[in-house]
Amino acid sequence: MNKNIIFLITLIILAIAGAFAYQKYNQYLPTASQEIQVENFSTAQIQQIRQNTPITEVKVYKAKRLIKLMHRDQIIQSYPMRLGFNPIGHKVQEGDGKTPEGQYILDWRNPKSAFYKSLHVSYPNAQDQAKAKKLGVSAGGDIMIHGSATTTQVNKLPKLMTYLPQKDWTWGCVAVRNVDMDEIWKLVDDGTIITIYP
């Protein structure tokens, strides 16, 4: 067979494989660092915040892909985030890829989460359970605020502490950079209200 034909066939196969891989995995490409405008606090600043302006509520704005830590009406810190892979609308059932909307409580935490660290959102509430029951489906659960890289990944590549995918990718959780998860972990106590807006 002619070398030019073999070369052309190889190029076509590589192009098809590359397009397939990009389509399947492009949601995990990292967000450009200049798009992330977070200046994380020092340990001393975190102590001052906890003492003088403790976090009273976490607000999640799904459309803006933004989390705000609030002390009453004062914004203490904001973080970019990613949502469930099917983000529009309120979570109705397990596996729908939606992030819940409404007011919940951050009721417990996991220091050894599959994605670094996590704070648990008290979804489903009684209303969510009633709606799922009426539809004959499971409401789902295990909705968290968590990191974007696993502890194993970070141990192998420490730069992943600042990794945030370009697109939504979770099963309904709210994902932030691991470095931001560390800060949220230190600033937000169990029992804090979380309000998730469309």
UniProtKB/TrEMBL annotation:
Protein keywords: Cell shape, Cell wall biogenesis/degradation, Peptidoglycan synthesis, Transferase
InterPro entries the record matches: LD_TPept_cat_dom (IPR005490), Transpep_catalytic_dom (IPR038063)
Active site, per annotation: H146 (proton donor/acceptor), C173 (nucleophile)
Listed Gene3D superfamilies: L,D-transpeptidase catalytic domain-like
Annotated ranges, domain L,D-TPase catalytic: 56-197
A family per Pfam: YkuD
Family matches, as CDD domains: YkuD_like (cd16913)
GO terms (BP aspect): cell wall organization; peptidoglycan biosynthetic process; regulation of cell shape
GO terms, molecular function: carboxypeptidase activity; transferase activity
Pathway: Cell wall biogenesis; peptidoglycan biosynthesis
Superkingdom, natural source: Bacteria
Similarity comment: Belongs to the YkuD family.
Protein's name according to its UniProt entry: L,D-transpeptidase family protein
